[in-house]
Amino acid sequence: MSPTTEPQTNAGGVSRREFLLGTIASAIALGGCGALKPWMADAPAPDWLTAACGDYAAAARFGKAYLTEHPKEAQRELLEAAITKAAGPAHSGTETPFQRLDRRVRAEYVRDDTVLVERWILSRTEARVYALAALHSA
Amino acid sequence: MFTDARKLPDHTEVQADLAIIGGGAAGITVARALAGTGLRICLAESGGMQYDPAVQALYEGESVGIDYSLTANRLRFLGGSTNHWGGYCVPLEPIDFEARDWLPHSGWPFGREELDPYYGPACQVVEIGSPRFDDLDYWQRQTGTPMLQHGTGRLRTRVVQFSTPTRFGQRYRSELEAAKSLQVLLNATVVNIAAAPNGGHIDHLKVRTLTGLSHRIRARQFVLATGALENARVLLLSNDVVRPGLGNQNDLVGRFFMEHPHLSGFAEVVTANRARLPALYVERKDIEGRSAQAALVPTDQTLRSRRLLNAMFMLGLAGTYRDNAPPYLGPETTAAHKTMLRAARRFLADGEGPLDPKDPSYCGLWLGIGCACEQVPNPDSRVSLADKLDHLGQREIRLDWRLTEQDRHSVVWHMHSLGLELASLGIGRMVINVDDDGIWPEQVSGGSHHMGTTRMHDDPRQGVVDRNCRVHGIDNLYVAGSSVFPTSGASNPTLNLVALALRLADHLKAAQRT
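ok -> C-alpha cells follow
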C-alpha cells in the first residue's frame, strides 16, 4: 500500500563513504539550506533538529524503531544529508528551517512517501528526523 | 384507519387496490404517497404500535457467516427499524450507480439522475434540510469556517445530515390514521404471497396473527416492504406455486446480501491542535435548525484509478490526553499515543512550549474514526431458510454474511488515505492496527444496513426486480426498500430507500392511470 523502498546506500558500485559524501554534497548543492547544515563528527544536535522534535526522548523512541527496520540508515551523516536534501530550498526569505521541513513533510504525506513505524504512518523524512534524534540521544 | 387483525373475525378477507406488506420507512412512504389518490390501500404490519417480544421473536434465525444479530438489528412494529434508526442521511453517489469493471455484479439500471428528483421530497419525509450534501460552499457559509482543503486527491468532503430521527410509526401515525381509503392492519403477519396458478400474478396475501387467526388481503397490486432480510424470506416462503419461491426462478432471491462493514479499533488518530480541524468534522452542528456533520469519502479518481470500493469516514473527539490522566485505551496504547503527540508536537501545533498554556498537562486529543464501507456484491453472501420454525410455523431465516479480500483491501487502503490526508494537513498522526492481508477480524460489525437480497437488474437472470422494482415474471408484485440495491455504496440506506419508495409510488400512480 505504501511504498517503502530501502534507501540506496551502495548504488552503482560506489563505495559507501563516497556515496555518503556525494549525498551530503548534493544536499548542500541543492539546498541553499540555510540552517540545515550537515552534521559533523561529534557535533551536538543541530538547532533545527531540536526545533523539529517536540520532545526529544519521544522522538527518539520512534527513531529507534525506524532504525530497527532500516539499519543501514543508522548513520548521522546519511540521515542528516537525506533530511537536508529532502527539505529543499527555502520558499521565501522569511521561511524558517522548521517551516521548510514541515512543508516537505506534508508534501511527503500528499504523495504517500511514507513508512510505517510501530504501525504509525510517518512521512519518510519525519521518520528520519526521529531517527536522527535517536542517534543523537544514544 | 387502524385495525387490529387480532380483533377481526377469523378468516376475514380485506379488499384493496394496493396491499403493502410492512410498515417501515419504505412501506409507510409508499402508503403516504398514494393515500388520497383514490386507491384503496391496505398496509399490513406484523407488529403493533409498540415493541412486543413475541412479535420480535419472529425475526429469530441462524447466523452462519460473520456473526450477526438477526433480532437486534431490526424492529418489528409500526415504523419498523426507524424505531431505532440513528438518523444518518446522505445520498448515494453517482459512481455508486455505475457498472464498474473492477466490481463484479455492479451497475444499477439507471444513474443517480433518476433518483435526484426524489431526494428533495425524501429529505422532507425524514425531516432534514434540503439535499445540499455536496454543496460545500453552503456549509462553509453556514458554519463560517473554511472546509478542509484536501491535498492528497484521495479524499473529499461530503456533509451528512441527521434526521431527528424520524420514527415513522409515531411521526406519521395520525396522518395514516386519518387517511381515507387507507387501512393499516396491525398485528398482521403476511406468511405467504399467494400467486395465481401460472405464477405470474399475485392473487392475495395470507395473513396470520399470533393469536391463531388467519385472514386474507386481496388486491390488484402488491408491494413487499419488510426490509432486506425479511423481503427475501417472505419470497422464499411463498413457494407453493413457484417452487423455489416467488421471483426466485434464477436462484437470486436472498443472494447478494450486503451490509456496510463498520470498523472500530482498526486505526486511531491523535491530534494536538483542535483548531486545525474545523468543528464540523468532529461534531454535529446545528444549521438552520438541522443537524449536520462533515464526512470524508474517497474521490472518484481514487476509486477508479485504484479500483476500490466506496467508503465513508466520520471523526469524533474520543478523549483528551493529559499527563497523569487515566489511560483511555489501556496503558500501552495510551502511552504510545502520548509519545507520538510529544514527538510530533511541532508538526501538529504552532509554536513551542505547552500546547495549552492554561493547561500545561494537556497533551492532545484522541480522534475516534467511524468507518462504513461498501462491500462487493457477493452471491455467496446470502439469506436462505433455516429448518427451525417460528411461532407461526414458518421456517426461520438463515443469514450467511460474507466479506471478501477485495472488501478488506479497499478498507485498509482508504484508512491509510485518511491517515495521509490528516497528516498532510498538519492535523494528526494515524496508527493503523490492521494489515492488508485479506482477513476480516472478528470485530467487524454491520450498521443494521441490510441490502441487496432482491437486487434490481433489467435482466431477469441477474436481478429479482426490474428498474421499476417489479418482480421479474410477476405482473403485480413490487419490492420497496434497500433489498433492491444492486450495490450499496457507503451511504446510509434510509434516505435512499425513501427516495426509491417515492419513485415507486410515482410508478404505481402512473400504472393506475393507464
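The helical segments of chain A are 16-31, 47-52, 56-69, 76-87, 97-110, 124-137.
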